[in-house]
Design goal:
Layout: E1 4-6, E2 27-29, E3 50-52, H1 60-70
Parallel strand pairs: 1-2, 2-3
């Protein structure tokens, strides 16, 4: 199963909700994407150890949700 996913520079404005089905995902690179929000079930990625993204693109609410969901 997929453990690492690099979506660097793909001009994604949102993360597909199907991403949360990748239960064994440990590394996710979303740098250089204008992502403005996170899917509600993003916290299901319990094995995620390394998550690269641009926090300035997310709202304060989404950043708080991210901290809460991923601990």
């Amino acid at each position: 199963s997929l453990e690492s996913l690099n979506l660097f520079g793909n001009q994604l404005e949102k993360i597909p909700s199907d991403l949360s089905k990748l239960e064994n995902l440990q590394q996710l690179d979303l740098l250089n994407n204008p992502i403005k929000s996170l899917p509600a079930d993003f916290g299901k990625l319990r094995k995620l150890e390394h998550f690269s993204f641009q926090p300035e693109a997310l709202s304060a609410w989404d950043l708080q949700q991210l901290r809460t969901q991923l601990g």
